[in-house]
Amino acid sequence: MEKGERSEIVSIISRKLVPYILLFGLYLISYGHLSPGGGFQGGVVLGAGIILLCLSHGIFLTEKKFPLEKIAFLEAFMITIFILLGIVGLIIAKSFLGNIFPLKKIEEVPTAGFVFLLNLVIGLKVGAGIILIFYSLCERSEK
Amino acid sequence: MNNIPLFLIIIPLFTACLILLINFLKVPSILTKLISLSSIITILILIGFSTLNILIKKQIFIYNLGGWKEPLGISLHMDGLAWFSSLLGIIITLFGLIYSLKEKNYSFKFYFFFFILLSGMQGVILTNDIFNMFVFFEILSIASYILIAYSRENKAIKASFDYLLISSLGMSLFLLGIGFIYQGCGSLSLTGVGKNFNIANGIPPSMFQLAVSLIVVGIGIKAAFIPLYSWLPDAHAYAPTPISAILSGIMIKISFLAIWRIIHILEAINFQHFFLWIGSLTALIPVIWALSQTDIKKLLAYHSISQMGFIIASFGAGSSLSLTGSLYHLFNHAFFKSLLFFSAGAVIYATGIRDLRKLSELYKKIPSIAITSLIGALSISGIPPFNGFVSKILITTSLKEYPLPSFLIFLAGIGTVASFTKLMMIFFNREKAIQENLGNFSPNKIKKIPKALIYPLIFLSIICLLSGIFPSRIAQGISNFILLKDLAYPLKVYSPSNIGKSLTILGLGIFLYLLISTKRGKQISLALRKRELGLNNSLLLVLAGLVVFIIFMKVL
Which residue has the higher pLDDT, A139 or B183? Predict the structure, then answer.
């Protein structure tokens, strides 16, 4: 294969694979309080999905779909939301990051309370962070 | 009220995030500055609210994170010592912020890391959990690596990288020490560690010694005592000026206060006594290098280490008077060192030159900076009626029983006077540049200094003067309210013998300055200046220091 030529196999397989990787990332985030996983791990998987797109289709196409500015905004927004949620917990549940939802018994469905929301915020923040790190690494090497 | 410790940590953190967020909304940069200022002032007001309860009613604010009580959860404690260092940190940070407002190069990223640094510092002071302390130390370190390299000059990047490697080594030693403590007593909260982790409770002595040495060396890299200080001069000299002032004024002291707290909790009395020797050597040796420096900020950075030596030696002596002297000097050093760094920054701003040999006769061009620098220099040299005099007298009085350390400290005082005479010569000297044939500096090219740079200098000078004029009030206050002990010693700072002592040091110091400005002296300083430790040697020195600390603990 010539240098710079795109392999059909890599391209097709990664295109089919990325949605499932993203789905798996969301699964890890949303079941983090019950099974192995959680916000950080799920976020890394989300980021890895986008990084796979970058590797197989090139950084320019990926940046069109996932522009750097929006990802950076998402990251900053999520960390602010996290602290705000903590303050809401402080006001309602009398402690920083305290649970603001009614707690149910273990076998009922919404068992997580506040944790799911925090995991989601952390997951999106970490995913955005991983993508940003990858984008800035790519920028450096091009110059 | 009990939520105050939490707010002291999350307000800076939230401000940092907010600054990052509003950057995307295309708002004018003045909003960033307004948010920064109002956040610091809010914290100041919160600390002000807590004053009455903590100092007068001797209450300790305890906040349990997430509502979990001590053995299970992390709790934040705010007692007198934490109140003191938190207040000191906020005041210096406020001045640093005012000083940096006028600078156009500082983008939102600067303010973001500035507040992360502040949050880390508050966390280290307030937390009562040793692992949480490690986490906050890491937050503080990461913010400071980036801020040191902010100017992106080669020297700054190299200084920051050296600091990163040395400090990472230190932090991993600290983590190892925490591991030993957790293995030994199964608790991470400082209260639990103090109760359970001692030799009387069945902890093997070797484990206790190793854990204490690892922790002290790990944090000691940030507190910069001998032999762990080799990263400091470059890092503090090449950082942006407000950051130099914050690092020198507050960060090294916060690390030292963390050591203070851990040693008090573990009751390692032998170790505390060892600090008397460490401190007096730390006071003397960097002064020798400081005398040979030609860079303004590097000279100041070496003096930060030396003054930390005074503080540490006085802490090591361990009596109520010496502990008061130690805290008083810590308080004073925060103010006069940031005053000196801000003045040096203003000189560099006005002239664009940081080499002492190229500057001369600045008194006529920038008289206000000359006066504030003079106040700073008089304070650090311990000349009455400025604050350095009071705390140095307290320290020398309390070290009377130990002849050799007090002699070392006396020598360090002489060196301090000499090197600050050298520094002040840039304001009052005549045509030095032409004499030495170095001059590409013409006195006409001086830029006008904006007011935002001068206000912090004036406030800091006033504080330096005021805390020197009312010595006994402040010393009694520190002793009664913060250390919770009565100051047994009748305090009479402004006695003729003390003033005579300080004038002797002044005379000897000026004599030493005349000696080093001869031709022979200049050769020696050139030779000294070239002999600086590289990164490899610094890392080796840290490990050697660790070995020395462990051996010392074994012997005693």
Answer: B183
Q: Is the pLDDT of residue A141 over 80?
A: no
CA A62 vs CA A16, A25, A53, A56, A137: distances in Å: 15, 19, 7, 10, 15
What are φ and ψ of residue B62, in 5° steps?
A: -120, 125
Task: Find, in chain B, the residue whose alpha carbon is nearest to that of A80.
Answer: B17
- Asked if residue A34 is part of any domain, the answer here is yes
Q: Which residue from B246, B247, B191, B193 is spatially nearest to B215, judged by alpha carbons? A: B193
Least confident of A90-104, B81-95, B117-131: A90-104
Strands B75-78, B61-64: parallel, antiparallel or unpaired by DSSP?
Answer: antiparallel
The model's pLDDT over B477-513, given as tens digits with 9 standing for 90+, comes to: 888 888 887 776 667 778 888 889 899 999 999 999 9
Specify if A1 maps to a domain.
no
Q: Which residues pair with B78 in a beta bridge?
A: B61
Residue A80 touches partner B, C-beta closer than 8 Å: yes
How many CB atoms are located within 10 Å of the residue B159 CB?
A: 23
- Render the burial of A73-109: b for 16+ CB within 10 Å, e for the rest: bbbbbbbbbbbebbeebbeebebbbbbeeeeeeeeee
Q: Is the Cβ pair B17, A97 closer than 8 Å? A: no
* The residue to which tokens 């000196």 are assigned: B340
Nearest of B237, B363, B450, B16 to residue A79 by alpha carbon: B16
Nearest to B189 by CA among B86, B262, B82, B107: B262
Give the per-residue pLDDT at B489: 64
The answer to whether residue A2 sits within a structural domain is: no
Angstrom distance (rounded) from CA B241 to CA A20: 50
Q: How far is A36 from chain B (nearest CA, A)?
A: 22
Distance in angstroms (rounded) separating the CA atoms of residues B20 and B36:
12
Residue carrying the six token digits 């170095």: B438
Summarize pLDDT for A55-70 with one digit per residue, the tens. Answer: 888 888 888 888 988 9
Percent helix, strand and coil across chain A, each rounded to 5? 75, 0, 25
The pLDDT of residue B168: 94
Q: Is residue A50 part of a domain?
A: yes
Task: List the one residue out of B198, B227, B208 whose CA is nearest residue B548.
Answer: B227
Question: How far is it, in rounded angstroms, from Cα B196 to Cα B212?
Answer: 14
User: Phi then psi for B478, rounded to 5 degrees?
Assistant: -60, -45
* pLDDT confidence of residue B140: 94
- How confident is the model over B261-306, as pLDDT tens digits? 999 888 877 788 888 999 999 999 999 999 988 899 999 999 999 9
B337 with B380: CB under 8 angstroms?
A: yes
Alpha helices in B23-70, H assignment, sequence order: 29-51
Closest Cβ–Cβ partner in A77, A83, A94 for B10: A83
Are B17 and A86 within 8 A, CB to CB?
Answer: no
- Tell me what pLDDT residue B41 has: 94
Considering only CA atoms, give the Rg of chain A. Answer: 18
Kindly identify which residue of chain A lies nearest to residue B11, measuring between CA atoms.
Answer: A83
State percent of chain A over pLDDT 90.
Answer: 44
Q: Does A20 touch chain B (CB under 8 A)?
A: no
B336 near B466, Cβ under 8 Å?
no
Collect all residues of chain B within an 8 Å Cβ-Cβ radius of residue A72: 24
CB B246 within 8 A of CB B272: no
Give chain A positions within 8 Å (CB) of B67: 93-95, 98
Q: Which domain holds residue A27?
A: 8-142
Here the tokens at position B136 are 């906050």
Name the domain count of chain A: 1
Q: Roughly how many angstroms between the first and final C-alpha of chain A, as a whole number?
A: 26
Is-contact B283 B310, C-beta < 8 A? yes
For residue B4, the one-letter residue type is: I
Residue A94 touches partner B, C-beta closer than 8 Å: yes
Partner B contacted by A87 (CB < 8 A): yes
Average pLDDT over residues B455-476: 87
Identify residue B489 by its one-letter amino acid code: Y
